[in-house]
Design brief:
44% helix, binds fe (ii) ion, mainly alpha, globular, single chain, binds 1,2,3,4,5,6-hexahydroxy-cyclohexane
Amino acid sequence: MVKNKIAMLDVSELLRPEPAFASKPIGRYRDYDIDHEDPIKERVRITYTEMHTNQTVDYVKKKMAEWLSFDKFEATIMEALESLNDLVDESDPDVNIPNIVHAFQTAERIRAIHPHHDWFHLVGLIHDLGKVMAFKGEPQWSVVGDTFPVGCAWANSIVYKDTTFKKNPDTYDPRYNTTLGIYSKNCGLDNILMSWGHDEYLYRVLVHNNTTIPKEGLNMIRFHSFYPWHSGGDYDFLCSEDDLEMKKWVLEFNKFDLYTKGGDMPDIKELMPYYQTLIDKYIPGLIKW
Ligand SMILES: O[C@H]1[C@H](O)[C@@H](O)[C@H](O)[C@@H](O)[C@H]1O
Ligand SMILES: [Fe+2]
Ligand SMILES: [Fe+2]
């Protein structure tokens, strides 16, 4: 069933040509070089330093217990989206404007390339909505940025890996600092503890509220920030065969998530009615967050 739906997507997209819509040269995205004189680079570096210092097995378990009771507030998807007007993501070297613009840029480009998959347009629009946690007391380092598994050794492709984990107690914990750590080989991504952030939270919110977004769309949301895996070439040993199959679709999503950053400003007001119809179709009404 799931496979059929995936097969309907345009596979030529999977060749990952340089997306024609990228607004700057591809190599200029995701620049995490350290430059203490550059205020945006410093903002990004500090956010990751706090994240990599504090995201531990115990921390993730605590956050899951706290957020996955879905008793924090109620809001429609559109209300949550509008709140992103007030959020500038401090982990992102490519976006220095409110996240709602990024939501519409991602969604509109997906819509242009995959016109027939309306659920995919919606995934583009809402994929970062888990960032609402930042308005409910979570520091940005616990909400935004790339994700990575806790409970096993930090992989080399994690950004700033060599400098930012030095004060994290799990770095020195023999239960957690081997390649496999607490996991078994190919145990499946569903069975690992990921650093706490907006991906897992939104995925769980959608499932809890009985969304009808197809599985491949839910996985795009759940793993879109797992760059060390989908783009860094690490952690395949934790994956099941299904996970490896799914990676192609996460990468397909990533193209739009990343390379639309800095592109044309969407006319949000004009686009709202179309996206409201998608919300009504796949995740209507008041949502428990
Ligand atoms: O800084 C960005 C941003 O926080 C995105 O929402 C997240 O998905 C990316 O992984 C990250 O690099
Ligand atoms: Fe994101
Ligand atoms: Fe995003």
